[in-house]
Amino acid sequence: MSKNKKPDKKETPEKNMNRRQFLVGGSAALAAGAIAATTGCATTTKSASVDSSAPQTGSYPESKGYLVYDSKKCIGCTTCMLSCSMVHYGEQNLSLARIQIMQDSFGKFPNDLQIAPCRQCVTPPCVINCPVGAAYIDTENGNVRRINEEECIGCGTCLDMCPQQPHRPVWNHITGKSSKCDLCIDTPYWNEKGGPGGKQACVESCPMQAIRFVTETPDQKETEGYNVNLRNDHWYNLGLVDDSRIVPPKYKNMPTMFGPPKAKPKAKRQEG
Exposed, middle or buried, 159 (CB in 10 Å: 0-12/13-18/19+)? Predict the structure, then answer.
């Protein structure tokens, strides 16, 4: 597929609107009006663009692919970030990576590090609120939530509306537009098929195998469904356990450092 080329077929969800959706639609219209005022375009013209091209709220088809990760396996090497920018833009640039690694030098394990890939949300705020429809659902490639950078006007609405911290859409400081993980569907600098059923650069390059592609929709509550356990017994034997009370499998049948506990001597019966 050519770079950022949006397929002709576009998902048209049901137009059932409740109070929350009405407020979301209103905020998108207000954002579009503000953009028109700053760019010198007529407000009426921009409003018409919103009505015709912006996706309506309602039910959306779930993505057929997601990235999950194990923050306890991640070592913060940023290989995934460098690989991401390389396959998409042909250069190793952490600022252009569509997956983010957040490190806290003062934090304690395992809260000192956080992996932040796009969640491919079941109800995607970026798609709902984009005033020009540049954020869309690619129905021809597994319903992946994507951003068409050619249509993006650089308003930053998708960044503001993303409820996650850090926000999953990433600002491209070179083009002045937003970008987002597309599960490697469009990788001009990588000769591999991506998307659902294909390969993802971050998954393939992670030296710790801390990122995995899955087809089952993770739990959408915060990031709990995405930060999963990808460790096997070898990791537990190294002591990387979820609870300090868990005994690694290797040591279950081994004596302690002071040897096995000694049996208590039985009390002698007094005869008489």
Answer: middle
Domain-by-domain residue ranges, the chain?
A: 61-237
The two three-digit tokens of residue 44, written as one number: 């009426």
Q: Which residue type occupies 153?
A: I
Q: What's the topology of domain 61-237?
A: Alpha-Beta Plaits (3.30.70)
106, containing H or E segment: none
Q: Which of 110, 112, 85 is nearest to 97 (CA)?
A: 85
Instruction: Specify the residue for token string 């190294």.
Output: 238
Burial (CB < 10 A; 0-12, 13-18, 19+), residue 238, is exposed
**234-272, pLDDT tens digit by residue?**
777 776 666 666 777 767 776 665 455 566 667 666 665
Chain segment 205-236, per-residue pLDDT in tens: 999 999 999 999 999 887 789 999 898 877 77
Question: Which two structure tokens, joined as six digits, stand for 11?
Answer: 């998902």
Of 191, 232, 231, nearest to 71 by C-alpha is 231
Tally of CB atoms within 10 A around 67: 22
